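for the recovery benchmark. tokens below, seq after
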């Protein structure tokens, strides 16, 4: 969005920000501007020199050098990156991933859909899909 020839960034929640684009002449702080003309230079004369013109103060024309490293407008931000899943990230929708039941105990993890088979011992639905069609794991004790 462009407001008063500014750039708008609301990518940080609750922090709206209006700013001059880095390639904009107005992004240069007036105290840091270096003259690019002479007293009485016109706006077209200033621009022919490839310089910036700021006529925002009445009767005080100002011709100055633009940004030292202009960037194209609008700047295209790279897409956000997400961490690739680790070997241990698993929702158990397609098997046990890299997890295995131990042969050294008296219980096994069982994959199932819906709620756990015994009342009051497990979630009513899968946390990944938030439905009873998703996969849950529960422990089944083995009879020895």
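predicted aa per position
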């Amino acid at each position: 969005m462009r407001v008063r020839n500014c750039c708008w960034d609301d990518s940080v929640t609750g922090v709206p920000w209006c700013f001059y684009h880095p390639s904009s002449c107005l992004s240069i702080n007036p105290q840091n501007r270096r003259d690019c003309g002479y007293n009485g230079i016109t706006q077209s004369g200033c621009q022919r020199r490839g310089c910036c013109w700021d006529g925002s103060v009445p009767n005080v024309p100002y011709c100055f050098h633009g940004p030292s490293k202009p960037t194209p407008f609008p700047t295209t931000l790279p897409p956000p990156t997400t961490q690739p899943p680790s070997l241990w990230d698993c929702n158990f929708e397609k098997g046990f991933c890299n997890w295995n039941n131990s042969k050294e105990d008296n219980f096994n993890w069982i994959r199932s859909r819906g709620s756990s088979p015994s009342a009051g011992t497990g979630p009513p639905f899968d946390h990944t899909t938030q439905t009873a069609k998703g996969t849950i794991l529960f422990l089944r004790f083995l009879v020895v």
